[in-house]
Backbone:
């Protein structure tokens, strides 16, 4: 397997390590930002605005993603972060969770855009689909870290997982031998789904002009990202359960995302009417 650490430098008692995970994640952010910025410029927005906003968005998203990961692990029954609170800041132990980054980042982005009198829907519609590609770009890091995999499978694309990276339920090597046991690459499922979803959203917006309105792309992103992730969660045995022996916290949040996207799209297209969400007819740039 590939070493997760590209190289490390010892500076006194501190070790600086450059990891593939960080490289892929940051590359995904930059790539997704580039795609989003192109869309903003295409619609007449300020080409520098997104990069200025990301100075505030990224730290908030990273903090939120880490906190969600810690809370999710604690809900799942782990006392690790309660017993070792200093490890909450150690992102090399554990990781980041997309939903926390989404919520915290969106809140900070909303405040930033309102304060600078920028069009909120323009940024949401540009960033949301681009985030799908950014996520897909970063997913190979999960393969290198041997994480975010599913249960055992006999399918030809199953991947091997070393004993040290096994989930507790698969740590019995007599029952799940390292040499012959393969696992669902759920990170790859999500990567493929995200890429297909990105092109599907843009195809819908480009082909049907009624879909090229403020709020539509974001609504479609909620639908594709939400329902797609909810389905993929069926293959994830490592998430905390909230109902029975099949519904996880991530599955519930993802399903609610997809449902919210359906409602927002119906409002945006005028299929149902209400007063809580007001969509502008055109982007204000």
Residues:
């Amino acid at each position: 397997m590939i070493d997760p650490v590209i190289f490390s430098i010892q500076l006194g008692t501190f070790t600086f390590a450059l990891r593939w995970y960080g490289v892929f994640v940051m590359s995904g952010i930059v790539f997704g930002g580039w795609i989003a910025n192109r869309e903003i410029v295409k619609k007449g927005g300020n080409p520098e605005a997104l990069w200025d906003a990301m100075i505030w968005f990224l730290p908030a998203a990273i903090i939120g993603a880490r906190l969600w990961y810690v809370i999710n692990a604690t809900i799942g029954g782990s006392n690790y972060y309660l017993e070792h609170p200093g490890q909450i800041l150690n992102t090399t132990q554990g990781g980041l969770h997309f939903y926390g980054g989404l919520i915290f980042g969106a809140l900070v982005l909303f405040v930033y855009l309102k304060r600078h009198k920028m069009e909120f829907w323009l940024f949401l519609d540009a960033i949301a689909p681009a985030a799908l590609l950014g996520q897909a770009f970063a997913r190979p890091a999960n393969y290198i870290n041997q994480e975010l995999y599913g249960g055992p499978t006999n399918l030809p694309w199953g991947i091997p997982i070393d004993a040290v990276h096994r989930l507790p339920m698969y740590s019995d090597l007599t029952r799940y031998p390292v040499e012959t046991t393969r696992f669902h690459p759920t990170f790859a499922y999500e990567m493929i789904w995200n890429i297909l979803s990105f092109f599907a959203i843009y195809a819908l917006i480009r082909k049907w002009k009624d879909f090229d309105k403020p709020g539509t792309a974001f609504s479609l992103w909620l639908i594709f990202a939400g329902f797609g992730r909810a389905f993929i969660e069926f293959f994830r045995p490592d998430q905390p359960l909230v109902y029975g022996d099949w519904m996880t916290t991530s599955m519930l949040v993802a399903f609610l995302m997809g449902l919210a996207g359906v409602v927002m799209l119906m409002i945006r297209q005028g299929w149902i009417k209400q007063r809580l969400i007001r969509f502008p007819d055109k982007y204000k740039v």
About this structure: The first strand starts at residue 5 and ends at 11. The first helix runs from residue 20 to 42. The chain has nine helices and four strands. The mean pLDDT is 89.
